[in-house]
Amino acid sequence: MTTNQGLKVSNDEESLKAGVRGPTLMEDFHFREKITHFDHERIPERVVHARGYAAHGEFELYESMTEYTRAGFLQKAGTKTPVFTRFSNVVGSSGSSDTVRDVRGFAVKFYTEEGNYDLVGNNIPVFFIQDALKFPDLIHAVKPEPHNEMPQAASAHDTFWDFVANNQESAHMIMWHMSDRTIPKNFRVMEGFGVHTFRFVNAEGVARFVKFHWKPLLGVHSLVWDEAQKIAGKDPDFQRRDLWESIENGDFAEYELGVQMINEADEFMFDFDILDATKIWPEEIVPVKIIGKLTLNRNVDNVFAETEQVAFHPGNLVPGIDFTNDPLLQGRLFSYIDTQLLRLGGPNFTEIPINRPICPFHNNQRNGFSRQSINVGQVSYHKNSLANNTPSTSTAKEGGFVHYAQKVEGRVIQARSESFKDHFSQARLFWNSMSPPEKQHIINAFSFEVGKVNDRNVRQQVVDMFAHVDFEMASIIADNLGVNRPTGQQSQVTASSPALSQANTRRVPQTLKVAVLIGNGFDVDEVESVVRTLRRYGVQFTIVAEKFGIIRSKDRFKVRVNETFLTTAPVLFDALYVVGGTAENQGKFNSDLIYFIDEAFKHYKPIGVATTGVPFFDASSAKAGPGIVFATNNADFSKMFVQAITQQRFWDRDIYQ
Hints:
Elements: E1 16-18, H1 29-39, E2 52-61, E3 80-89, E4 104-112, E5 115-122, H2 135-142, H3 158-166, H4 171-177, E6 192-193, E7 198-201, E8 207-216, H5 225-234, H6 238-248, E9 253-263, E10 289-299, H7 303-308, E11 321-322, H8 327-343, E12 412-414, H9 425-433, H10 436-451, H11 456-466, H12 471-481, E13 513-518, H13 524-536, E14 540-545, E15 549-552, E16 558-561, E17 563-564, E18 575-580, H14 586-602, E19 607-609, H15 614-619, E20 628-630, H16 637-647
Parallel strand pairs: 13-14, 13-18, 14-17, 18-19, 19-20
Antiparallel strand pairs: 1-12, 2-3, 2-10, 3-4, 4-5, 6-8, 7-8, 7-11, 8-9, 9-10, 15-16
């Protein structure tokens, strides 16, 4: 291996740092060449996070954080800061589907009075690698394979799993990747994380390590895999459509911002390195302090001008927030701005309206592609006397950004701290924290993903690797893949973190979607009372029938049809209400309605059955049991149906009976 200049490379695993836990050095020419080439590989869309969708909103602070940070927007309770938030898939192209199994980006730009602050994170709190030097390798492995440009937006192929098996620092992230977290139901029920360890610094110069969390007020909910695949075909814009329509309807997306903080004196008191991006700080050990709320309340006016041209960068800070020596973060500080120079046509991308700060900005930067500012005067340098040394710098007391004066010592070296070398303890912690249905979903995901790998040796390597997480899990996967059972020994970690399981998340009925399956001659009483209850609890409903137009009850009451069995699908709804009736093509009507019931039942969704809907339910393969609510002789039907809708999934349902 050589550089592009022909120089032999001695280390392609670790970037050059000042000490094994020190900051990455700009003199690491190999890292800069490698990441620069990677950043410029694809034009014009983003190399990663190409498929994105965004919205405007505001962040409101709950309580003053003056004790911890001097960041201006975090000083006074009630302060509201304009924001722009972009959600995205990582792997696929801009034209790929929303609901593929993938990590999701969760990036927030705060337009503060001290300048723009970007919190650029994901919906998973850890990452695949520990050092940014490995990032091009990771993405090369997970992107479509170069010899045939397949598969699109998928990790289920040889090169990705070959990378995983040979870079075992990815073990923890892969457990998250195989979990339900990578197929979120929509952006409004998706958790967000800053991933890296940052610093809060207060006015006295006292620093604390900090991690950031976004917690959705609707709870954290996911699709099931079969459902996600079908939605990709039925509506590839499913998640972006949900965000757009929810905001248009006034059902704004809301997330609370939480922070975990560790005193500098406690940096080494844990059994994991707090600077390791493949590790979490378990919430049971380091509690999350909720400090404010993000509300997304306005859709973009133009997707290209805003969503596509927005430029996030983890180096966009405000006074009171600073970096740590996390080597993955250190590399991102170079990579993001380097990428934007190519994508957005040069160094003036900050003048694009979506990227402009709301506060005044002055400096001596001039010219370049797409320059919009018309600077006047003869001076464009510092220091000067011709313009009274303006623009002038500011002291910390005047609001100037001053880097935290951390002590750094050590030899200039390419190495990794010994404290980064435990790859399986937290992967085991994650497994221990899952509910039985979640564990089964992880096994199924491994079996599907690695089942798409053609090389049997790679399959065997993956099974052997994840035996270190859980031997029984790996053995089941081995049987499913037709390879040898592993012989290794699993991690001995017995701890769990209940906060990691979606079984423990919040559940509310608001904004959930119900398909009312109906035909002519329906009983108006069966529909009116249920619809009234759904409205009262904020549940949305869609009238689905044979064809568009008007259908009439047996009393000639009229209902307008919103969708037909042809134009929509059961996977696009959270629940069904089966009313039934008559249609011009009764056989087709019966078949379509039964198909909706079968699909909802298979995906563990609640189904309400009106008295007139019972014959259709009986004709389906669905059976009475958890989440099936009948109206017949049930005075509390509407209330019980809403309770079932709120539960969302009924994992104890036997869908194979």
